[in-house]
Amino acid sequence: MRSAIRLGLILLGLLGSLVLLLQLRQENVRLRGVVYDPPVPAADFSLVRADGTVFRLSEQRGKIVLLFFGYTFCPDVCPTTLGDVRLALDRLKEAERERVQVVFVSVDPERDTPQRIQQYVEHFSPTFIGLSGSEETLTPIWKAYQVTRIVEKTTSAAGYLVTHSAYLYLIDPEGYLRVIFPFGTAPDDIAYDIRYILSKSAKK
């Protein structure tokens, strides 16, 4: 009798796991970016902003954070991505935009001061936050998000370029990494996933 009960409990647990897995797969089909399955906690970090205040990722709970790593001397990838993000936000309702925070973290601390990077992102939107710091401060953040960066000397006036990974990370309102958008993801797809995750978060 006890063996039958134990077997029944095991089967019930397996059934519950199967239902959860099916739900996750169904949600992943609905999302258009590359999905974290399961979602993982986003590594917390803090950096000093241009105005002297401290930005802490963990204090953004309740909002979606769109996190991108780049630099102000970037000739193509960074301005294209930030422009696409701005277009994606333009597709949202005002109430939805208020629940999204865009954060741009430097991979070029030698040239990107907090003031310079903030001025740079404000060309795309005054609501965007630009962050930088010393290489010592930024290195563990890059590692936590598996950011690659290679400094390449050039003969241009800039002196060098930084080749870097170009993923846009979506962190959900509960602080979990949910989606990665590769470079070139359409603004419509970014907006769609933002809207979808906000709608799910509102129901919790």
Q: Compute the number of helices.
A: 6
Count up the domains. Answer: 2
CATH superfamily of the largest domain: Glutaredoxin
Low-confidence stretches: 1-26
For the record, give the distance between the C-alpha atoms at the N and C termini, rounded to a whole number. Answer: 40 Å
**Spatial order of the strands forming the largest sheet:** 1-10-9-4-5-6
Oligomer: single chain
Labels describing this entry:
alpha+beta, Glutaredoxin, six-stranded mixed sheet, 204 residues, two-stranded antiparallel sheet, globular, 2 domains
List the helices and strands and how they pair.
Blueprint: H1 2-30, E1 34-41, E2 46-48, E3 54-56, E4 64-70, H2 77-90, H3 94-97, E5 100-106, H4 114-121, E6 129-131, H5 135-144, E7 149-153, E8 160-164, E9 168-171, E10 176-181, H6 187-202
Parallel strand pairs: 4-5, 5-6
Antiparallel strand pairs: 1-10, 2-3, 4-9, 7-8, 9-10
How would you describe the overall organization of this protein?
With 204 residues, this protein is of the alpha+beta class. The chain folds into two domains: 30 residues; 169 residues, Glutaredoxin, CATH 3.40.30.10. It contains six helices and ten strands, in the order H-E-E-E-E-H-H-E-H-E-H-E-E-E-E-H. Strands 1-10-9-4-5-6 form a six-stranded mixed beta sheet. Helix 2 crosses helix 6. It is globular, with a radius of gyration of 20 Å. The chain starts with a helix and ends with a helix. The relative contact order is 0.19. The N terminus is likely disordered.
